[in-house]
Amino acid sequence: PKGTMAFTGKYEFEGDENYDAFVQKIGLPSDKAEMGRNYKTVTEVVQNGNDFTWTQHLPGGHTTTNRFTVGKESDMESLGGKKFKAVVKMEGGKLVVDFPNYHHTAEISGGKLVEISTSSGVVYKRTSKKIA
Fold first, then answer.
1. Cβ within 8 Å of residue 118, ≥6 positions away
2. Count of structural domains, the chain
3. Residue ranges of the Cytosolic fatty-acid binding proteins domain (predicted)?
4. DSSP calls for the chain
């Protein structure tokens, strides 16, 4: 079936749009914003049906891992380290979730992981290429 296991893989940051405006809008501390700028974040996704493990490898050996099941409330952590509860939905092949101060979608498009975060009209787009 279409969409099954579509997300599984390792993706390396390739490019983004509106990073500065976005991190300012969500109030990311400048040291964290600086750290994330142009860093080749590696996102590792394991999808088993509706169950996901989504890990981001960040500068300095930090990792953030969110485990969630589509349609069920899950404990999540934002890039800034905020813990919150959210329900991840699947809409037309995209994962959709509301973080505390932004709306996030992720999809596989043309073999790349494309993530779009929107906060108060600022749209941040991040593209990562598949490396494994």
1. 102, 103, 104, 124
2. 1
3. 9-26
4. -TTTT-S-EEEEEEEEESHHHHHHHTT--HHHHHHHTT---EEEEEEETTEEEEEEE-GGG-EEEEEEETTSEEEEE-TT--EEEEE-EEETTEEEEEETTEEEEEEEETTEEEEEEEETTEEEEEEEEE--
pLDDT tens per residue, range 106-122: 999 999 999 999 999 99
pTM: 0.89
Residue-number span of the structural domain to which 52 is assigned = 9-130
Q: Tell me the pLDDT tens digit for each residue of 60-95.
A: 888 999 999 999 999 998 867 789 999 999 999 999
Query: How many CB atoms sit inside 10 A of residue 99's CB?
Result: 18
Q: What are the residues whose beta carbons fall under 8 Å from the beta carbon of 107, sequence distance 6 or more?
A: 93, 94, 95, 113, 114
* Token pair of 115 as six digits: 């993530």
The answer to whether residue 2 sits within a structural domain is no
For residues 69 and 37, which has the higher predicted lDDT (pLDDT)? 69
